[in-house]
Design a protein that fits this description.
With about 220 residues, the protein is of the alpha/beta class. Helix content is about 35%, strand content about 20%. The protein has a single domain, classed as Alpha-Beta Complex (Spore Coat Polysaccharide Biosynthesis Protein SpsA, Chain A), CATH 3.90.550.10.
């Protein structure tokens, strides 16, 4: 019996590195929605009973991240936090005019250290469909040292994307196109997914997520 217990304990211990190697965090990039005409209203407006921002947040939570950080504009964060109230996530106010690279690095800095990768999700219903996010996670877990990016209709790399932790330092904090530039620079190490192919997985109904990592509501910092 003792040998059996030791064998089972060893199996669990050996499995931990594999689990940790594919643990991901998620960042929902909503800090620009008040800076572009009409998008703030769209994010707050209910469609089929749910505001866009909340719907996308629930899609990100459905991927079961270790934590979800929502980057919101500092000058409008109160209204957006009301929309997200009750969801297990953390809101991170970002000042107006901050470069994309700096905003991304600020969000990545508050993710749990155990996250081996980060799923970057845009506040865009078409780009952040459930099928695409699931397909991206599956591709990353198969090769966690590589990044994954969705190619848009113009064949330009961008969001959503999944970056391994080792890549995070490559985001230039002063660059407004930091993510695109990083993906293009390391294109040979990126798994490229066609938007149509990724979406073909189909959108599943979203669960009523209650908690991620013990959190139970929007926490602003």
């Amino acid at each position: 019996m003792r040998q059996l217990i030791q064998r089972l304990r060893g199996t669990r211990e050996n499995a931990r590195p594999t689990d940790a190697a594919t643990m991901h965090g998620a960042v929902l990039l909503a800090s620009g929605i008040s800076l572009r005409g009409g998008l703030q209203a769209d994010a707050l407006a209910a469609q089929e009973g749910e505001p866009l921002l909340r719907e996308i947040a629930r899609r990100a939570l459905a991927t079961q991240p270790a934590a979800l950080i929502v980057s919101v504009p500092a000058d409008d964060h109160t209204a957006l936090e009301v929309v997200l109230r009750g969801l297990p996530l953390r809101c991170l106010p970002v000042r107006r005019g901050m470069a994309q690279g700096a905003a991304l690095r600020a969000a990545l800095a508050v993710l749990p250290h155990a996250c081996a990768g980060v799923l970057l999700v845009p506040c865009d219903r078409a780009a952040a469909d459930a099928g695409s996010l699931t397909r991206m996670l599956d591709a990353w877990r198969a090769q966690p040292e590589r990044a994954v990016s969705l190619l848009n209709d113009a064949r330009v790399p961008g969001l959503p994307a999944l970056l391994p932790r080792a890549w995070w330092h490559g985001l230039d904090p002063g660059n407004g196109l930091a993510l695109r530039n990083l993906l293009q620079t390391r294109a040979a190490e990126v798994e490229w997914l066609e938007a149509g192919t990724a979406a073909a997985c189909g959108a599943e109904s979203l669960p009523d997520v209650q908690a991620v990592n013990g959190s139970s509501g929007c926490v602003s910092t």
